[in-house]
Amino acid sequence: MEIILIRHTSVDVPLGVCYGQTDVPLRETFQEEAAVTAINLKNCQNNGRDFDHVYTSPLSRCVRLASYCGYSDAERDDRIMEINFGQWEMKRFELINDPRLQDWYNDYLHVEATGGESFSMQYKRVCNFLDELKRKSYKQVAVFAHGGVLICAQIYAGLIQIKEAFSSLPPFGGIIRITI
Q1: What is the DSSP code string of 13-36?
Q2: Looking at residue 95, what DSSP letter applies?
Q3: Which of 109, 118, 143, 169 has the most other CB atoms within 10 Å of its CB?
Q4: What residue spans define the domains of the chain?
Q5: In terms of Cα–Cα distance, which of 20, 30, 13 is closest to 65?
Q6: Is 142 in a helix, a strand, or coil?
C-alpha cells in the first residue's frame, strides 16, 4: 500500500514556541500554501484516480488543509496528532522553567514532556495507526498530519534512521510517500 502523507501548512505561532497538540491558527498565507499543496497532491494520485481512503489529524490545521484539498469528509484519527508537550504547550522553550526540559533535550526519545509524551510514545501511536492500515485492502491512502507524524512514518517505512529524524522534517505543506 502506498501512503501519501501531507504536512499541514505553516502555523501562526512565533518561532520558539512549543505548540504540539495545541490547536493553533494558520498563517494568513494559508490559501497560497494550500493551493500549492493541492496541486502537488493531485500529482501523487495513481493515474488521477482518487485515494481509497483519506485520514486527517483532528487538529484544525490538518482538517482545514484536507478540506481545502477536497477531503472535508476525511476520517479523523487521534493517533496521527502531533506529539503532546503537556505543560510546555504554548510556552517559549527558553522560558520553560522545568528541570525535565534538559532531560528531554538530552533524550527526547525516551523522556516525556511534563504531562505529555516522549518521541517514542508518539512513534508507538503512529505505528499502531500504520499497523492497522496494513490490514486494510487499500492501494493508496492520503494522511493529513504533522511533522512529527511524517518523521515517525518515514522511520516506520525504513526510509530514515531515528538519528536522522529531525533533519528529515518535510516543510510545511510538504508531501512524502511511503510504502508499507
Answers
A1: S-TTEE-TTS-PPBPTTHHHHHHH
A2: G
A3: 143
A4: 2-179
A5: 30
A6: strand
pLDDT band at 164 (very low <50, low <70, confident <90, very high): confident
15-58 pLDDT, tens digit per residue, is: 999 999 999 999 999 999 999 999 999 998 876 678 999 999 99
Residue 39 corresponds to which cell in the numbers above? 496541486
Residues 131 and 144: their CA atoms lie apart, in Å, by 17
Helix, strand, coil in percent for the chain, rounding step 5: 40, 15, 45
Dihedral angle over CA of 21, 138, 120, 157, nearest 10: -130
Dist. CA 129–CA 132, nearest whole Å: 5
pTM above 0.85, yes or no: yes
* CB 7 within 8 Å of CB 174: yes
